[in-house]
Design a protein that fits this description.
Number of domains: 3
Mean pLDDT: 75
Helix content: 40-55%
Radius of gyration: 41 Å
Number of helices: 11
Order of helices and strands: HHHHEEHHHEEEHEEHEHEEEEH
Strand content: 15-25%
CATH architecture of the largest domain: 2-Layer Sandwich
Low-confidence stretches: 1-7, 304-309, 315-365, 374-381
Shape: elongated
CATH topology of the largest domain: Beta-Lactamase
């Protein structure tokens, strides 16, 4: 299959085969040229040298020109041996030799360029993070895959040669849609389907494929099973939030509403989410309650609870509720406090400018405590 070692072994076996062919065609061409020179008919026989020269230049591009030069010297030696110092024959023979060397150089250059591209794309094929496979469209037989393709489905590269690509689909309708679309349009992108895995059951796969010559197509697959599970978990959580009996709203760092559930709409007397989307939540908080809530969010990195009075729909009375807010980056949104000041419970500010009024601060603090106890008692009722 597409494993690097197997590819190298296959190339070496083909190279050895063509070496055998080069040697035999060279010997045959030399024998035919000897006979043609011996009988004085040497018009066609030199052209037989092009066969081994071209094969050697393609399969052995680094040694191809050297092989052509050796063949040329051997042919010139035969001409000189059988025809002597005939200037016309020597000139025509030397032209044939120059052409042999030139053809060898051109073929070697093209072969070298092709080999570099082949190695480059072979590296992309073998080391791609996506699974890549070459499939015969008519028989659906998997001809070649990279390691990622096989391991993604729990197989090895040799195992994939025994499996039909269509058998990997768990849904027959998805399989028919895939092959019908690639037959009509010649390509398909971002196609989601469930594949049968050897060890882990079904896997969600994202497929992109395109037709190639010789009735083949290349398929790129990506495992999206974890993404599908995350999407399902988000859908479940979204349904839980939207159907919760608790009134829930999600705000951005500027206190603009980005989400409200049905319980909050019923609590505030609104009919549609569009009536609240993008509105400033501070519009619904009265008596400076939002300032206390912001101060508590600034002190707590996780969550706070505060009782504030919110203004509901104009047709409904204002309602006192307990608000639980969760915030992590809110601290960065608060205005910096003067050096030496800090917030105390209830939103009071402690600092050098306030330390000369301890009695007033204690009275203010005790008043806040009594007010909080009174609000808590009302809320419990």
């Amino acid at each position: 299959m597409a494993d690097g070692n197997m590819f190298i072994e296959r190339e070496e076996s083909l190279s050895n085969l063509w070496l055998f062919i080069v040697i035999n065609t060279t010997v045959l061409a030399l024998l035919i040229n000897i006979l043609s020179l011996y009988y004085g008919h040497n018009d066609v026989a030199p052209n037989l040298f092009y066969i081994p020269v071209v094969i050697a230049a393609y399969w052995y591009p680094n040694r191809g020109p050297i092989f052509a030069i050796i063949i040329s010297f051997a042919y010139m030696a035969l001409v000189y041996h059988f025809l002597g110092s005939d200037a016309a024959m020597l000139i025509s023979s030397s032209i044939i030799c120059y052409v042999l060397v030139g053809v060898s150089v051109v073929v070697s250059s093209l072969a070298t360029h092709m080999r570099r591209n082949e190695v480059k794309y072979r590296g992309l094929f073998n080391h791609s993070q996506a699974g890549v496979g070459l499939i015969d469209f008519k028989t659906q037989k998997i001809q070649e895959v990279n390691h990622c393709f096989a391991s993604m489905l729990g197989y090895t590269e040799p195992d994939m040669a025994e499996i039909l690509f269509g058998d990997l689909f768990l849904d027959a309708s998805k399989k028919d849609t895939f092959f019908r679309q690639i037959q009509i349009t010649g390509s398909i992108e971002m196609f989601e389907a469930r594949f049968q895995s050897r060890n882990e059951g079904s896997r969600w796969i994202l497929i992109s494929a395109g037709m190639l010559p010789d009735n083949q197509f290349v398929a790129n697959i990506i495992d999206i099973t974890e993404r599908k599970r995350a999407e399902l978990a988000l859908l479940i959580k979204d349904h839980a939030i939207s159907s919760s009996i608790n009134a829930i709203a999600i705000l951005d760092l500027d206190f603009h509403m980005t989400y409200v559930n049905q319980s909050l709409l019923r609590l505030m007397g609104y009919q549609s989410e569009k009536e609240l989307m993008g509105r400033d939540a501070k519009e619904f908080v009265t008596s400076g309650g939002h300032l206390e809530l912001v101060a508590q969010l600034g002190r707590s990195p996780r969550s706070v609870r505060a009782r504030v009075r919110i203004g509901s729909h104009p047709e409904h009375p204002r309602t006192r509720v307990q608000v639980q807010a969760v915030g992590r980056a809110i601290r960065n949104r608060l205005r910096p406090r003067p050096a030496g000041q800090r917030y105390q419970a209830g939103g009071a500010v402690d600092g050098p400018s306030a330390r000369h009024k301890p009695a007033q601060r204690r009275r203010h603090q005790s008043g806040n405590d009594r007010q909080q106890q009174h609000h808590q008692h009302q809320f419990q009722q």
